[in-house]
Amino acid sequence: MGKLQEFYIVFDHPYAVYQAGEVLRGNVIVDLAEPMRMTNIRLWFFGRSKVHWSKKSHSSHRKQLTHYHGEEIYFDQSQLLFGRADGSEVLHPEGVHSYPFTLPLAESLPSSFEGKYGYVRYLCKATIEKPWKFDHDTKTAFTVLSQLDLNYEPSELRTPMQGEGSTELSCCCCVTGNVSATFRINKRGFVPGERIIVSAHVHNGSNTTVSQTKVALKQYVEFSGSVENHAGSSPQKLKCESEFVTSLERGQIAAGVTEIWDDVSLEVPAIPPSRLVGCDIINISYVVKFYVYVSYGEDLKLTCDVIIGTVPLNDVTSPSTSPCHVVISEQPAARRPTTIAVQNTLPPSYEEYIGGRVHIAEDYDTEYTRGQMQWAPSYPMFRRHASMEALVDTCPPV
């Protein structure tokens, strides 16, 4: 392995998750089998959002590929850990060495996110600089969470929300009847780990079979970018992406039959908060949708908008129980908000984003860059004590 045995970055939080407004802390570890000549060891901090997509267009003469870009830089700075800033040579001793570092994170930083056409990403990269030879690099990413406390959102988030509708079925130009549905969710504000409680009635008033019913939590992401050319940037364009983050399905409903969804639950998985506050080129929103798929006619789709936060709603359904206090992570005294009493909610664990890991190689990486190349942000998961599920997670009758 040569002189350099180990070279990596470790954070003081086990999940490498930090609140916007906290101080990032960690150590760069260097293990040398023998002394090494170098100019210095430097640690770089990068925080940015980036958007890119392309669109094909056709003219009378040729096909053209138009690229849309967007970027926001939140920080790009470095710290000297060892050696001299003037570039003069020093000899680093052999053995294992740990270099501590800190970086205050601004309160305005947006939450980490990895999407199909863009991301909000935070990285640390340590470099052993050797101007007369190739540099040694190691990198790793960390998660930043911008707090979205549901208790400071409109009070309507606590109330159930209902949707209803009907669709007419026809076959061979003859009307075969109507299919109607009503569905309700227990509230509009959730955090990952909570359960969305769904109640629904679907009445098949036609003489044909309903193919399927489905309830889903759906994520919508808007990416904003422009075309850059010699004349400057074009007006902003939007690229939209949507996907189901969790869903449940049921089978056919025979003619004349009513199907009932009685307090069916969907657990909110590890996903980023709504809006992505602090980022102006990526926006995230969520809806709960109820689908009735039919064979002869227009499918019925009912929608309830929901907000996904990072601090759960204060539970007011069982005031006789003693509260436990939820703190996502330690914050400086000046930044720490008033603790919210959350009835019977376990302190959060952390899970990786359900979108999976992505390759985070950058243009400046080389074949000598080591460290974390596959990565996904992690989000807090709040789950209730099992003894309270039946008391709290119910939806009023439809």
UniProtKB/TrEMBL annotation:
Transmembrane feature ranges: none
Family indicated by similarity: Belongs to the arrestin family.
Protein name according to UniProt: Arrestin C-terminal-like domain-containing protein
GO biological process, one term: protein transport
One Pfam family hit: Arrestin_N
Limits of the Arrestin C-terminal-like domain: 175-313
GO cellular component: cytoplasm
Domain of life: Eukaryota
